Amino acid sequence: MKTHKNMKPMLRVSRLPLTAAIYMALSTAALAGPDDQATEEKKATLDTVTVTAQKRTENLQEVPISIQVLGTQKLTEMNVSDFDDYAKLLPSLSYTQGEGGGSDPYIRGVVSGGDGNHSGPSPSVGIYLDEQPVTGVGGSIEPHIYDIERVEALAGPQGTLYGASSQSGTIKIITNKPDASAFAAGYAFEVNSVSNGGDGHVLEGFLNLPLSEVAALRVVGWDKKEAGWIDNVYNERTFPYSGITDDNADLVEKDYNDSHTTGARAALKIDLGENWSIMPSIMTQKETTNGSFAFDPVVGDLKISRYYPESLEDKFTQVALTVTGKIGNFDLVYAFSTLDRDGKAESDYSDYGFWYDIALGYGYYAINNDFDYINPSQTTLSDGHQTKRSHEIRISSPQDERFRFIGGYFQIDQFRDIQERYLIDDWYDGYEVTGWEDTIWLTKQERRDSEKAVFGEFSFDFTDKLTATAGFRYFENDNSLRGFFGFSRAFSSQNSRPPSQRYGEAGCAFVWGSTNPADWPKFNGAPCEFIVDPDGSLGKTTKENGTLGKVNVTYKLDDSKLIYGTWSEGYRPGGVNRRATLPPYQADYLTNWEFGWKTSWMDNRLTFNGALFRQEWKDFQFTILGQNGLTEIKNANQARIDGLEMDVNFAATYNLQISAGVAFYDAKLTENYCGFTDEDGNPVTDCADPEAPTGTRLPVTADFKGNLNARYTFDWNGYEPFIQGSVVYEGRRTSDLRILEREILGDMPSYTMFDLSAGIRKDSWTLNLYVKNLFDERAEFNRFTMCAVTVCGNAFPGDNVFPAPPEYANGQIYTVAAQPRTIGLRFSQEF
């Protein structure tokens, strides 16, 4: 993609609406009328926000970390119910969204693209539910947001306290805890409607029940139906090799991407004497999604043509135990959790057969038992199970001491059972994977990831204004993969490959020395286990260890203002590539240099915080779809991210509250990405034709993101009416790191979205009418193809065996965009 000389002026112009809105909002303080001045006696001030970013309960304004926090009140006011709702309110957070609706978060531009696959790398952002990590390869859980105390977004490496996958930052979802001091209960009911889409609803409720002076139970439940807005419209496609025409008449449906989420959460807190407490908890949630959240611009706006059923069922249960207490003056915390997650999905993969038929005459292989040609379209069926077990024990010294520390031990073990089938209806029996009807490709694997670590941070107050902190984390990681993947031996003998490079049933024949499937030991129903380590043992494994560091110096200018400087490190663990010819991928590391400030002004009516930073990303992991659609992970290259983050909170008057946040990023490669590594797994950067040269911008994250929120309340005859407005702007983002793929997919344009709400409150109840995405902005969050970008994107039309249809001369590229304008009415009450 060429950069025009006037690009920067255009970017500046595109930010004008948000900049103007911020100035206009702030200026309203000077225009406060008599009613505002009368209520000024009620003392306009900002609430104190507490966080646990450093695993202690502290005032946000005293923590030398770039943190964005959404508290209970803000989450309620902004009608936040899921990840998409709060992600847009956090300038440091960007994300991609898949066709099934799941999201992959990124912080501070640390993203190379291609994440989310079950055989892919660990995420770069850690996700925590209270004390327990819920980060997961292939997507973290996304709990419904209700009865939540706050959401904390910690920007920058959090390696010392949070370890693996908190490489670029951490998101913490903190639930409201049981309270033995008083009974409390509440409920909410919401109905909503999506523009040109369907209708939805939300039912929520909580109960806080004191059982005695030292015990309380808190129970929360929810039922949420999200309306669809993507139409599956009638279409036909003709496969060029056989001339067979397929249509989707049986699946035509309006608003077919709906979803239904139900869940519950319960926690019991028991005080064991004055200094000890124990809190077991359980949370379970089931989400069922139909259809696709992507649309095909060739078919039409918010329209798609799918030829096979698509659905997703995601169900998880988390059981946790937290014990807190004191040993002398030292605080002790033990946190345990176990997460069990099951996922089932069916997907339309017919684009693969269609475009490989155009490119290579793939339809030649699509025959039935009578040797007649059949429709070569594929569908996929996925059925997987995950378990995650974690333990953490830590001890911390009194916070009011001049020298203080926190330290502990952490361990996590993750297991994933993976099953994926790629099917062709009525396919020739002789081509099927043995024992699996109509299956052209089978993945049947077990993946294990574990981490053990010791960590600590030590702080010393040199004076009452100057504090220094040093931290470390020593870790040991294991990653292993075993099982089966590939074609049947009859369909793909792979005779052109060296025996050690064969997979599928050809790999079985090589490993077990027989061409007879009856001689192969079975693996969880698959024909055999053949993934082999270089030493000849079954299964592939990799181990690594290392140490992360952190140094921070904080200086208090006065009681309400501080500045700080930080050097910190974060990492993602390495792992196994399932293709035998590829070496394991190595851990990648992020090093951060940061100068920040936390300031409070005007007697705590105004806070202004910010951070200026540089991050060096070394040997970062990059995921691509390689030969036969196999995920390949390589340590791609080096990158640098320079950035500036700022946020303002202003109690302009007692009635008017304003908040704004901005983030500027310059994220780019500092060496060529050639697309391959040397024999030791190190990225090669000296090549004649790099896939992405030095200076290439990293994908997904814009160079600017910002938001502005303003809420005005007033008294009227004993009622409290309110009106609220919010605007979010995000700049243009690239869709891929590689130049060719980026040019095929195109960039995701900038967008500006407005939300409005108005309502009335009296005593314990609130009635709220809201509009999300007021002007129905088509904000894009992802662009993708259903097979290799260069094939489904028709990158080399002159090399195709058959011509592509004229309407798809530029390939078949899908877009995932924000939910269209949504109007909702919500009633809530608390007792």
Written description of the protein model:
The chain has 831 residues and is mostly beta strands. The chain has one domain (7-830): Beta Barrel (Maltoporin, Chain A). It is built from ten helices and 38 strands. It has a 22-stranded antiparallel β-barrel. Strands 3-8-9-6-7 form a five-stranded mixed β-sheet. It has a three-stranded antiparallel β-sheet with strand order 18-37-36, with no helix packed on it.
Provide a concise account of the structure shown.
By secondary structure, the protein is mainly β. It has a single domain, classed as TonB-dependent receptor, beta-barrel domain (Maltoporin, Chain A, Beta Barrel).
Provide the number of structural domains: 1
Q: Could you list the spans in which at least 5 consecutive residues all have pLDDT below 50?
A: 1-40
Count the DSSP helices. Answer: 10
- How is the CATH topology named? Maltoporin, Chain A
CATH class: Mainly Beta
The average pLDDT score comes to: 89
Major sheet summary line: 22 strands, antiparallel, barrel
- The CATH superfamily label reads TonB-dependent receptor, beta-barrel domain
Radius of gyration: 28 Å
Share of helical residues? under 10%
Q: What is the overall silhouette?
A: globular
Relative strand content: over 45%
Could you give the topology of this structure?
Blueprint: H1 7-14, H2 16-27, H3 34-39, E1 50-51, E2 58-59, E3 67-71, H4 72-77, H5 83-87, E4 93-97, E5 103-107, E6 125-129, E7 132-133, E8 148-155, H6 159-162, E9 169-175, E10 184-194, E11 199-212, E12 215-226, E13 231-232, E14 236-238, E15 245-247, E16 259-272, E17 276-290, E18 294-295, E19 303-304, E20 311-327, E21 330-348, H7 350-360, E22 379-396, E23 403-423, E24 439-461, E25 466-486, H8 504-512, E26 540-558, E27 561-572, E28 588-601, E29 606-625, E30 631-651, E31 656-669, E32 704-713, E33 720-730, H9 739-745, E34 751-762, E35 765-772, E36 780-784, H10 789-792, E37 814-817, E38 822-830
Parallel strand pairs: 6-9, 13-19
Antiparallel strand pairs: 1-2, 3-8, 4-5, 6-7, 8-9, 10-11, 10-38, 11-12, 12-16, 14-15, 16-17, 17-20, 18-37, 20-21, 21-22, 22-23, 23-24, 24-25, 25-26, 26-27, 27-28, 28-29, 29-30, 30-31, 31-32, 32-33, 33-34, 34-35, 35-38, 36-37
